[in-house]
């Protein structure tokens, strides 16, 4: 095992009856790095999170958290987690929850610092049950970070957060990584993964399909996106040279192309009504869709 890694999974296989959720997955997470864990529904992301938290053991392979067995007291003391749902006592206030949780940790963060990182200063005295869904998510985030974890697992942390809270959460996650935490974040928001992740791991069918910085993942798909108003039907657009996908985007159509200039020439030759033309570089979302498409093709 890699002693320097904050988390290491090696050759992990995990099955639920006949369903192979993880199929020989190996992954090491470094301190100070935010890793975005991406993948379609059923890819195995939550299974990996469950293994890191010691909820279950792999049927084959090994998982270590800071050299400890996941779920052990030592590993739990070093891990903070924000899962997709949490059952917290409705009658306790935000500050009471945080004080209680901090009391489990030897080097817990001061309450004011935790409140500030999660944007909860104004809500410290409010009962948890009287908070909105997004505010409750921020409390769950605060609980995950209050013990100064060396490994922070965030399972779809932005779900239910408004745009401003989401940006604030991203900033807080960045601060925690800069302090040295190894952060693993699952998300379906590729904009979030792109904005926040130092590294992106794309899972599909329990295996790693791609692993690299957002820029490296984008570079694996030498595609560009072309949007325009066109009178051609989608089938004609899909058949243009270089085009790998065509789909409606509001009034316009979005084409993904491997050869932008060639596609553009053919498009203009075939349709003299083309308007509102816009050519953009590949976003992480396009690259991920392309990689998944190639896998299933
Ligand atoms: N408790 C369970 N019993 C049986 N099968 C399960 C169980 N939990 C997960 N699975 C199956 O294991 C596979 C991986 O599921 P997992 O929840 O890890 O995926 P995921 O990537 O987290 O998906 P999502 O994005 O939908 O949350 C899926 O095929 C799922 O149906």
Automatic annotation (TrEMBL):
Keyword Coiled coil present in the record's keywords: the answer is no
Question: SUPFAM superfamilies, alphabetically?
Answer: P-loop containing nucleoside triphosphate hydrolases
Residue ranges occupied by any ABC transporter domain in the UniProt entry: 7-230
Q: What top-level branch of life does the organism fall under?
A: Bacteria
Keyword list (alphabetical) reads: ATP-binding, Cell membrane, Membrane, Nucleotide-binding, Transport
What InterPro entries does the database record attribute to this sequence?
AAA+_ATPase (IPR003593), ABC_transporter-like_ATP-bd (IPR003439), ABC_transporter-like_CS (IPR017871), ABC_transporter_ATP-binding (IPR050763), P-loop_NTPase (IPR027417)
Q: Which GO terms describe its molecular function?
A: ATP binding; ATP hydrolysis activity
- List the PANTHER family: ABC TRANSPORTER ATP-BINDING PROTEIN (PTHR42711)
Tell me what this protein is called.
Answer: ABC transporter ATP-binding protein
Species of provenance: Rubrivivax gelatinosus (strain NBRC 100245 / IL144)
